[in-house]
Structure formats: C-alpha cells, structure tokens
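Quick one: structure for this chain?
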Amino acid sequence: MNNVSLHRFPRLAFVDLETTGGTASMDRITEVGIIEVDEDGVREWSSLVNPEVPIPPFIQTLTGITDDMVRDAPTFAELAAGIARRLEDRIFIAHNARFDYGFLRQAFRRTGRDFHPEVLCTVKLSRRLFPGFERHNLDSVAERHALHVTERHRALGDAQLLWQFWQKIHDLHAPEQIEEAVRRLLSRPALPSRIEELELDRLPASHGVYILRGADRTPLFIGSAVNLQARVYGFFGKDRMTGRDRLLAAETAEVDWIETSGELGALLLESALLRQHATPYNHVRGDDETCAWRLLPRGGALQGAVATSDDLFFAYDPELYGLYANPAKAREALRAVADSQGLCHALLGLEKTRAGKSCSARAAGHCRGACIGLESVEEHNQRVRAALQSQRLQAWPYPGPVAIPENGAWHLVDGWAYLGTAHNEMEKADLLKGGRRRFDRDVYRILQKWLPVFSEKVKPQ
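Got it. Here's what it folds into:
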C-alpha cells in the first residue's frame, strides 16, 4: 500500500450508505458499508440496518434492499457505537459526501452522539484531478478507470469502488498533487459554487434577518445582518471555515430572508425568531427560567430571594440583581460574590443557622462575622448593596409599552419584551392587544445599547 500515501493520510474510511430516501432529517439508513485503511491494512465491514420505517418500492428496486431483508437487522442505535469506533479519527471519504455525511450525522444525533469528522468528497476530488472530464458520478468514475464493480447500489460494493478509485489516482498522479488537492478540499467544503447553487444574488443589500434551511426547510441557523447579501455571501464564499461552519454550509439547501427597517429591527426580529425555532447551529439560549436576585429586608438584614421572569412585574422591579438561567446558577453566583466580599451566607439567606451561631463561610474564613455580631447588620447591608450594585438590573423606564421609531417603522416594546414591528397605527393597535408579555433577556440586552440612541424619539403607547 506504499502507493496510496498512507504516510500523508494514515487513517482513512471509505463510506457508503443506502437509505429510504434523499432527505437526511426525514429518511433513514438501510445499509452501511465501511472500508478502513491504515498502516495495519485494509478491513471491510457492512451491515443492513432496520430503518424502522417502510422502504419505498422504487428504493427497493434501485438498491435491492427490501423490507423483509431489514426486518431482523439491527437498528442504527444498536450499531452506532461500533460505527463510531470504525470512523473515529479518520478522514471520512464518500462520493457526494454531503449526502452520506448528512445521513450519518442525523442518525448519530438521534442517538445523542456528535459526529464531526474531516470530510472528503470523491466527486470533488475527481473534478479537481481530472478536470477534462464532464461527468464525475460513480458510474462514470468506475467506467473511466476500469474499476471492478461488485454490487452497485449496495453499501459495501460502492465503498469498494471508492477505495479502488483512491488507489487508481495514486497510479496516475504524484503524491504531492494528491496531497494538495485533498488538503484544499478538506479545508474548503463550501466552494463559491454554493453561492450560485443557492441563488444568493437574490439577497438584498439591506438590513434584515437570514434563515439557513435544510433540505426539509427546517431552520438550521438564524442570523441578523446590516447587509444581508454581504453577510451570507461572506459565509459561503470564505476560504476557511470552522468545523461547525463546514457542517452548516454542507447542510444548507435554501436561504430565506426578511428585510427590516434597520439594525435594531433586525436584532429584535432575530431574537423573536430564535424563540420560535430550536435551530441546531445557533447557540442555545435556554432562558425559560430566567431569574434574578431580589433583596428583601428580613429581620433587619437584606436577604436574597429568587425572582423569576414568570412574574409579570419582573421587568418593573427596581431591586433585582443579575440575570441567571435558573435558581441553582443564581445561588452559585451569589455564594461566589459573598465569599469574595466577606458577606455572611446566613444573613443573605443562603443557609440557615441558629441565632448566634456562625455560618459555614465564617468557618472557611470568608464571612467577616455578621452572623455572630462582629459586624453590624446595617454595615453588612451596605456592603451587600455595594457588592451587587454592578449587577443591578435597569427597571423598565416607562409606565407601559412604547414605540421605538426606525426608518418609518415602529418597534413596540413593553417591559423589555418585544411585541413586534408596526408600519401604521392599525398594526400598532393589533400588537398592543396581546397585553403584557414576559421579560425577555435578549431584548433587555439589545435595548441596553439601543434605547439611549432612540430615547428622545420613543413614544409611549
């Protein structure tokens, strides 16, 4: 195997799948074929897979894989661990790799596994190494290079063709030429041709929100932009991508967009859409339990009580501190502040102690002794407020909803919650009918920057 550049690419996996259809998010795998190539040799493995759904008749005719054949086969979940081991730390090589990789990634995701290999598409490799040929599908490649066909449209048979193709190119090209082609393709899975394929020239050069969708139109990623065309062009046209970007580019089948009146409108709409869609490529915001500390006087001492955004008065409370994803994180943060500032856990309500008994922070050398009278309650209260002052939330500065103007549109906000954007009085009235909304952490953070810019133009509603 010295002629296949194993010293440059020592761990390879030639992969082919058979499936019930062409959409990774909806269809299922019916067969997996893998050829592992490394310094220890070449190993072949394949298995039928029970897709747990019927195989369409035309797919049965194409592949020869019938419902009867897969009825007693293992499910993908049962095979996942073994397949993952076979593919671990290998370059994933497939013909039209986006298809095979997409199905495996979705299948692994259903079992709770991440799957992010380096991917090499032999269609693209064939185009790069043999630019004089027009067709690069697997049948054309096999005929052109006189590859030995065993079972066409069966997973292991097609994987064997890829392994033969890999050996053939080493007979026809210098190792350095192959290495350069492979490295370029590994680092640029989203070629500029994707710009034409997705018809990105239709995008306007204006503010708005763009939505990258998968083959079934499910939103994969939602983002805002000052210039929609430049932003999306920039993503699909850049030379180098992170692994996550490469995956997103490969899975994107369609790009939608919504123009907005300006940058603020784009940010607010993006936030609203991310509330509606659990997109796999956006950072999880997970703020269903958004909460803060409320300081309440109890027995003369200021104690912390967790307030959640389910309280409709949350946005109007002037005594709230910090924003946390859940009460456990809120308590953890307050303990950290208390320990760094020498505050008493007992007086803060973080733990219960008997009167005159020191708190656990005192025993650990953090508390200054307010719990046992070494510091007055009044002095402790002052230090509590000083320690939390930088985390104090701004209460909603208006008695009710307001309209924020931006280039002919009005963004309606109430209590740090975005109600929507209106373009006339009737639309305003419709948006206001819904009543008060729940505090929105993202809207709060957006408006901390933008509200001062528009403050003189804001109109109470």
